Amino acid sequence: MTRPLKLIQIGAGSMGGALLKAWAEGDLLDKEGSTVVDPRPSVETETLCQDSGIALNPSADHAYDVCVLAVKPQQFPSVLPQLSWPSFGETLFVSIAAGTTADEIAMLLKNQADSPRVLRVMPTLPAKVRRGVSLLARNPALSAEDEQIGEAMMRAAGEVHWCADEEELDRLMGVTGCAPAFFLRAVEGLAKAAEEEGTSPEAALAMAKETFLGTAALLDADGRSPSALREAVTSPGGTTAAGLASLEEDGFAQSLPKAVRAAYRRAKELAGA
Ligand SMILES: NC(=O)C1=CN([C@@H]2O[C@H](COP(=O)(O)OP(=O)(O)OC[C@H]3O[C@@H](n4cnc5c(N)ncnc54)[C@H](O)[C@@H]3O)[C@@H](O)[C@H]2O)C=CC1
Ligand SMILES: O=C(O)[C@@H]1CCC=N1
């Protein structure tokens, strides 16, 4: 694999910014030879670029090893055909967008590169602290070196899981890409419960957050499975059992698989958006 990589990243919002931070902190990039394009960069992105030497919205033309596409899927049809770096010939395109297929992306890039090679990746926001989980979709158009480059980039931001194809990635994105929002919704719900019991908003959020973080740390450090740890919390006939029974009455066990399928359906709708 060619190291360090010359990167051009299109879009540095929530997810693009998180990945950029992970990459800028490591030794994967040739930072002086890398560029971020974003018409409305956050202060965080501006500072990151300034501190790392990555160019932000430059007019100069460079050759890039990798182009990361990190705008919203709905923006792909307007943004991709407008990309104006003529040196995309050998560039590997990495899309982090939900839904939009590699074939659709290659079609939108047909004026920028002959036969563009597109790797689809589904990252997670904890990439910002290098605790992401990235799904990567195998694609016959990619070379072994393309796969190595994609894997090295995403490993710099956490764990990676190769999917047999884009279909598998779309099916699993609710378990990874979307799931931080599901977990955070649970933290919000617990904080609201504490507030309803008369706790101040600050203390409510602090106790919900620390309980969540402590549970995650325990799951990480302890050898036991989530089921075994859950049982360790749950005294027979006790308070947790009563709470879990209430959750089950509300269909909790089915709600997450249902959410994952809803995310998959939306990914299919976004394909071709
Ligand atoms: N937010 C998340 O947790 C995850 C997001 N994704 C994917 O990441 C992609 C980006 O999502 P977010 O970061 O959440 O969106 P965002 O709205 O936070 O970021 C999009 C960025 O694109 C920039 N942008 C708009 N027009 C542009 C243009 N013409 N050229 C360059 N940049 C432009 C915006 O200024 C913004 O900074 C989406 O395709 C989404 O499906 C994937 C996994 C997780
Ligand atoms: O909500 C979305 O569509 C993106 C993809 C996964 C997480 N955020």
From TrEMBL:
SUPFAM superfamilies for the chain: 6-phosphogluconate dehydrogenase C-terminal domain-like (SSF48179), NAD(P)-binding Rossmann-fold domains (SSF51735)
Q: What does this protein do?
A: Catalyzes the reduction of 1-pyrroline-5-carboxylate (PCA) to L-proline.
What high-level taxonomic lineage is stated for the organism?
A: Bacteria, Pseudomonadati, Pseudomonadota, Alphaproteobacteria, Parvularculales
Pathway as given in its UniProt record: Amino-acid biosynthesis; L-proline biosynthesis; L-proline from L-glutamate 5-semialdehyde: step 1/1
Pfam families from the entry?
F420_oxidored, P5CR_dimer
Q: Where can this protein be found?
A: Cytoplasm
Q: Cellular component terms, GO, for this chain's entry? A: cytoplasm
Domain Pyrroline-5-carboxylate reductase dimerisation, residue spans: 166-270
The UniProt record gives the binding positions of NADP(+) as I10, G11, A12, G13, S14, M15, A70, V71, K72, P73
Instruction: Write down the PROSITE patterns for this protein, in alphabetical order.
Output: P5CR
Q: Where does NADPH bind?
A: N57
Chief site of localization: cytoplasm
Q: What is this protein called?
A: Pyrroline-5-carboxylate reductase
Answer whether the UniProt record assigns the keyword Oxidoreductase to this protein.
yes
Which GO-annotated molecular functions does the record name?
pyrroline-5-carboxylate reductase activity
